[in-house]
Specification:
- By secondary structure, this protein is mainly α.
- The chain has one domain.
- It is elongated.
Length: 69
Amino acid sequence: MNVSNYGKIERGIGNPVLHTLVRISAVLDIDPAQLVAGLTADHLPALLEAFSAADYVAEQRRRAGRQPS
């Protein structure tokens, strides 16, 4: 794992994927559940904007000058 990513997680500004949490827990010799114990949806970072796959495709077509189907 990149040291800068670990630093972000440590400072609470990173949002690691499950694979990363399992790797960290293995190094610390703890159960991965200990890393997420007590977390709720309120602890999740706010989404700036959420787009669906259809939104993405429509935007790509718009940028390419094509009309959405």
